[in-house]
Amino acid sequence: MIKKLLFLLVLTALFLAFIPQLAKPSSTLKAVFRLTEQPAVIVKGTQGSALTINISFGDKEVEELLEKLSQPYPLLFIDSDWASRFPHITEQIKQRSLPVALLGTEGQHYENDPNLLSEQLQTFEELFSKRPLWFRTTDEEFPLALLQKLSEAEINALGSTVQWSGGALPKASKGEIIAVPYARNEHVATAEIQRLIASRTFQSVEDLLFRSTVKTKKIPQ
């Protein structure tokens, strides 16, 4: 009887000691955020290739694109207004655990409207039940005030090494981050994206950047 009690006490102590660890944020997420000492835009790592897709338009076409994706999945930058219009696609993204980030508007809009980022973040969090780790403007312009707000929100500003809209495949380079548009005025056919995916081995943005030296874009003054 005494041995059983001692055994139960030991198990209880171990369980209580383990609970705080479950509440801690992922060490990977903590290490990825604040890869740079000052607010800056990450545009490249030092090894591998990462694919990102900016989605702000379409429904059937986007569903077709998502169906074709396989692991390792590209990072999907999602326009929160677009996602609000197509909740069934948002649900599909969540069910498949596809990696998502927040796609904003043009950088200048954040200087004109100081509340724009917080409004977009609120919508994104309501849709995906989590805060994004990455943020990108559509023109990859990041005013200083925007970068400071992102830093306060513990969100990384992610640009790209190459913006590809189809046609000739970009020459592979170490640490490249490729951005593909899927917007009203410019989007790449699913077959073209599949051709790009087949051209090299892609990995997640986190794997590209985690514990590596990253290249950044100088912040505007």
Largest sheet: 9 strands, mixed
Per DSSP, what share of the residues sits in E-state strands of 2 or more residues?
Answer: 15-25%
Radius of gyration over C-alpha positions, nearest whole angstrom = 20 Å
Low-confidence stretches: 3-32
Order of helices and strands: HHEEHEHHEHHEHEEEHHE
So how many helices?
A: 10
Structure classification: alpha/beta
Shape, per Cα inertia axes: globular
Number of strands: 9
Helix content: 40-55%
Distance between the termini: 72 Å
Task: Work out the oligomeric state of the chains in this entry.
Answer: single chain
- Name the strands of the widest sheet in spatial order: 7-8-2-3-4-5-6-1-9
Organism: Sporosarcina ureae
Protein name: NodB homology domain-containing protein
What does this entry look like structurally?
This is NodB homology domain-containing protein. It comes from Sporosarcina ureae. It is a single chain. The chain is of the alpha/beta class. Helices cover 42% and strands 17% of the residues. The termini are far apart.
Which features does this protein show?
221 residues; alpha/beta; nine-stranded mixed beta sheet; 9 strands; 17% strand; disordered N terminus
